[in-house]
User: Which sequence fits this backbone?
């Protein structure tokens, strides 16, 4: 993985191409099956819909006055047809994930891919950026080492349960990508959280983030766009610098996320990128599997994570706190004026 960004896109694609050519054979077979089923299903649906709708109407009349009455013959028949027609698409996606993605992952170095893998919830919750939820699911799990630092990313879905009488429903509170970076030793003395200035998250965070206070970054333009909470004001100022912010914003854009949030604590960094986009899926079944765009995009996406790791490798919390002890940095309890006068600060934006 260390040499990943030194390889140009064409060389990387040429390395992956033999695997993609294997997938292309599968794609062509599944596309033919999909088109054949669709040509049968369209007239069949037109033929079956009227009698099914009539049967539903008769069932509703027969159950008149029954509060628990229901009729769904039309939905069941059309749903079954849709499932049958789209089955080749799902089979193509499964072949991509089970046969191709693990092989491609190895080309990124020692990266391992698991279609149904999951970051343990107990690892995520101490970050203080995981919303309250009752159900957790995950897919498309990647993990590996870069410069001795463990990188894990996965699509996750968090849902909160709501009950109304006898009815129980689940509502999404987070859906998107989670990127977890675990360093071999403790890197951060404090706990710092950064999020784009989203009011809903801010309200939730104020209620849930026990022990963390809003950081005074002395930059009004920055604070209009981001919220920072920490229990170590000095460390927060050194973590949240222009290079870090620009890299996180680039990750947000590359992964087509709505926003982002990040937590820095102990020896870990967790980045959450909420998005409705379904990552790590093959392109449309009508697009050749050998099309280079999706593979090159995956290389770019991973590159932004490696850049974040590079930044953390430069940052040294131990040196920062040693500097605080010998007087080169102000103590945590110093006021903002004292900190500005004593600390060699970098401009945030």
Assistant:
């Amino acid at each position: 993985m260390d040499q990943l960004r030194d390889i140009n896109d064409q060389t990387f694609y040429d390395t992956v191409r033999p695997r993609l050519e294997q997938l292309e054979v599968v794609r062509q077979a599944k596309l033919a099956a999909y088109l054949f089923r669709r040509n049968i299903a369209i007239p069949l649906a037109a033929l079956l819909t009227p009698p099914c709708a009539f049967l539903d109407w008769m069932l509703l009349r027969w159950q008149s006055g029954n509060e628990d009455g229901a009729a769904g013959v039309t939905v069941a028949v059309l749903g079954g047809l849709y499932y049958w027609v789209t089955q080749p698409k799902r089979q193509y996606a499964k072949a991509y994930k089970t046969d191709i993605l693990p092989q491609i992952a190895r080309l990124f170095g020692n990266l391992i891919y698991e279609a149904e893998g999951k970051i343990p919830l107990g690892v995520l919750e101490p970050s203080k950026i995981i919303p309250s939820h009752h159900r957790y699911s995950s897919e498309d799990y990647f993990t590996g080492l870069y410069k001795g630092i463990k990188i894990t990313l996965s699509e996750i879905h968090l849902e909160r349960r709501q009950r109304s009488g006898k009815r129980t429903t689940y509502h999404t509170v987070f859906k998107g990508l989670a990127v977890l970076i675990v360093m071999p030793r403790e890197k951060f003395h404090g706990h710092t959280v950064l999020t784009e200035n989203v009011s809903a998250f801010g309200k939730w965070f104020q209620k849930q983030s026990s022990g963390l206070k809003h950081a005074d970054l002395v930059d009004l333009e920055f604070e209009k766009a981001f919220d920072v909470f920490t229990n170590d004001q000095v460390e927060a100022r050194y973590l949240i610098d222009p290079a870090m912010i620009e890299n996180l914003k680039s990750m947000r854009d590359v992964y087509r996320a709505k926003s982002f949030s990040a937590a820095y604590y102990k020896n870990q960094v967790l980045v959450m990128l909420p998005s409705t986009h379904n990552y790590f899926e093959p392109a449309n079944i009508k697009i050749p599997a050998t099309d280079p765009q999706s593979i090159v995009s995956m290389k770019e996406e991973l590159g932004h994570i490696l850049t974040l790791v590079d930044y953390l490798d430069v940052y040294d919390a131990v040196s920062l706190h040693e500097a605080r002890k010998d007087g080169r940095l102000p103590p945590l309890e110093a006021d903002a004026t004292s900190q500005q006068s004593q600390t060699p600060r970098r401009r945030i934006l």
Q: What stands out?
A: The radius of gyration is 26 Å. The chain has two domains: 1-109, 112-281+316-349. The CA atoms of residues 162 and 168 lie 6 Å apart.
